[in-house]
Design goal:
It is a single chain. With 602 residues, this protein is an alpha+beta fold. The protein has 14 helices and 35 strands. The strands form seven sheets. Strands 12-11-17-8-9-16-13-14 form an eight-stranded antiparallel β-sheet, with no helix packed on it. The longest helix is centred in the first third of the chain and has 14 residues, at 138-151. The chain is globular and about 95 Å long. The N and C termini lie far apart (69 Å).
């Protein structure tokens, strides 16, 4: 039996194709809000990091009423590194809006999320967004999306698949890109007519998979999921099936989604997306069922991580000056808390060291975690990102990724050279006006640090996307950083006089007038060897003055490094020191004598 009064819809797309902007438009045109309630853009991107970076990191649920039907909308991240968020929330939906940019067409992440949605049994509607773009080609983008659907095993849906053309920015949807309408009503109508209501078993015992965890300072964890069968009431005693077996608990509070928030409910039935309070130790993937029903669902599975970094406490001479949390115990507790919600993350303690191997989907996935921790007051040291190797049939395999680079045609040469040096193989080349789309197959090792170099080589014009493809036999060596670094030999404040003498042979990474310590990296050497320098040396003053001896010191601005750039920049013997106020680069061994001794023994 299917319910006709509910639609559970997940919005999936590649990063920056307009998912959250489309949700804004649906909210504004739903007639449920005053203008004052919906200020700004990307209303659902409530996290500070999401607002700053302009990307969605966490999936969100809202509910909109339309013509007597409640439409539960789930907004998902578009970046490949946050694929774990998509994999768990598609379980709650029966249909999906596959958003495609009218100019760019389906991109690498579109393939990934559509594949996961089809595996979960979602019925797709293709939404060609941004039809108002001057370089838009909506009909070609639609054809490419249909081809992708056929490639991923959705041939049986090709005859009946529905599509619509929209401009979330202009606020209209239309079935013909040449005809502009006044609102989003065609999209709302299509959701009701083309997407099925949830398939339910009302008379069966209660069954629900926990797909998301919320958190409240007052009640602790909040379990969110879709009821597959049966009914639930507020205060009902239920059975919680976890990894170590079932336990009887009481669901203290029951909430259903309503507009942008949640409202308390006395009961809810199969097909509803609900939030339950009072389940103390609930985890993502647990099944909630009626007592003694013995109908636990298979645990949620997500793709394995492909990259790891070593997290340890800050051990520099400046430890404890800027952060509140500096001990291993606090670091361990924070990582364990992150594991509760971040299903794509893995944490393992490294034997013999007070450090943790944290595994994730990519540099951005782990960089967001580090950035969140530093804003909470943590100080930590992070090692170089390393790919996770696997042994398959007795042979060592490494992860490979599909890399897609869109560049102006005149800068195509440097891109192919840089990717080729890192074991990338060109698979496809498609000219699009003044731009050319290049598709490569490249080891994940080769991607670490490649983004910055591609942007430098193309003067910032390259658009770079990649997604995990598969594990393949290991390739040869990937070139390391070609330049050495300047390492401070003293502790103190950097002096303009000393920095002026260094900038001729290097590029500075720190400004004048800041505190440094022995072993800290202060610049990039012009040659491939590391150099120990004194950035704190002051000019010796005499009572003699001569023309030309007192030069005007003009320093070039230092290179400004983001957290991701710093993580991709360092080598095996270096660390990124992360504190609430600063990001510093340093050697693992701070003293030069220790580094030389280690070099001789190696």
């Amino acid at each position: 039996m299917r319910r006709s009064d509910i639609r559970n819809v997940v919005i999936i797309a590649h990063v920056d194709h307009g998912k959250t902007t489309l949700v804004d438009c649906l909210l504004r045109q739903s007639g449920q809000f005053r203008d004052a309630e919906l200020r700004g853009e990307r209303i659902l991107d409530s996290n500070d990091l999401e607002k700053e970076r302009g990307i969605t990191i966490l999936s969100k649920n809202i509910a909109l009423p339309y013509e007597g039907v409640k439409i539960n909308v789930i907004d998902t991240p578009g970046h490949a590194d946050f694929g774990g968020e998509v994999e768990r929330v598609v379980q709650m939906a029966d249909g999906c809006l596959v958003l495609v940019d009218a100019a760019e067409g389906p991109m690498p992440q579109t393939r990934f999320v559509l594949e996961k949605a089809l595996q979960a049994g979602c019925t797709p509607i293709i939404v060609v967004n941004k039809v108002d773009r001057p370089d838009g080609r909506p009909l070609e983008a639609l054809d490419e999306a249909l081809e992708l659907l056929a490639e991923l095993g959705g041939e049986e849906q090709l005859d009946k698949v529905k599509y619509v053309f929209t401009s979330a920015k202009e606020g209209f949807a239309t079935l013909d890109p040449a005809v502009k309408t006044t609102d989003m009503r065609p999209l709302f109508d299509l959701v009701l007519s083309a997407l099925p209501g949830p398939e339910v078993e009302e008379d069966a015992p209660l069954q629900m998979m926990v797909s998301t965890l919320g958190w409240s300072e007052y009640v602790g964890r909040i379990a969110i999921g879709r009821i597959s069968a049966g009914n639930i009431e507020a205060g009902q005693t239920i059975e919680l099936h976890q990894k170590n077996g079932p336990a009887k608990v009481k669901a203290a509070g029951l909430f259903v989604f309503d507009n942008l928030g949640r409202t308390a409910a006395e009961s809810a039935g199969a097909g509803d997306i609900v939030a339950l309070e009072g389940l103390v130790n609930v985890e993502i993937g647990d099944t909630i069922s009626a007592v003694d029903a013995n109908n636990a669902l298979p645990r949620l599975k997500v793709d394995e991580p492909t990259l790891e970094m070593v997290f340890s406490v800050n051990s520099s001479p400046m430890v404890g000056r800027e952060g509140k949390f500096v001990t291993t115990r606090q670091l361990k507790a924070r990582l364990e808390k992150e594991l509760e919600r971040n299903v794509a993350l893995r944490v393992e303690m490294i034997e013999g060291a007070e450090a943790y191997a944290v595994k994730g989907r990519g540099v951005l996935h782990l960089a967001i975690l580090i950035e969140t921790m530093r804003r909470e007051g943590f100080e930590l040291s992070v090692g170089k990102p390393r790919v996770i190797f696997k042994t398959i049939d007795g042979k060592k395999h490494e992860p490979f990724e599909r890399l897609q680079v869109e560049v102006p045609t005149e800068t195509m040469g440097p891109v192919m050279e840089l990717v080729g040096l890192r074991r990338g193989q060109l698979e496809e080349m498609n000219p699009r006006g003044e731009y050319t789309m290049l598709r490569f197959l490249i080891p994940s090792r080769g991607l670490i640090g490649l983004r910055t170099r591609l942007l430098n080589a193309t003067r910032g014009t390259a658009i770079i996307n990649h997604r995990f493809e598969s594990y393949r036999p290991i390739e040869g060596e990937v070139p390391k950083r070609s330049n050495g670094v300047l390492i401070s030999m003293v502790s103190g404040k950097t002096v303009p006089f000393a920095m002026f003498g260094l900038q001729d042979r290097s590029e500075l990474l720190v400004p004048a007038g800041i505190e440094v310590y022995e072993g800290m990296i202060v610049g990039e050497n012009a040659r491939e060897n590391d150099l120990t320098v004194n950035p704190c040396r002051e000019k010796k003053l005499t009572n003699m003055r001569a023309s030309g001896s007192d030069e005007n010191v003009v320093l070039k601005p230092p290179r400004d490094m983001s957290l991701e750039a710093a993580l991709e920049y360092i080598e095996e013997d270096e660390l990124v020191e992360v504190t609430p106020l600063n990001i510093r680069l340093r050697k693992i061994l701070l003293k030069e004598s220790d580094r030389r001794r280690t070099g001789r023994s190696a």
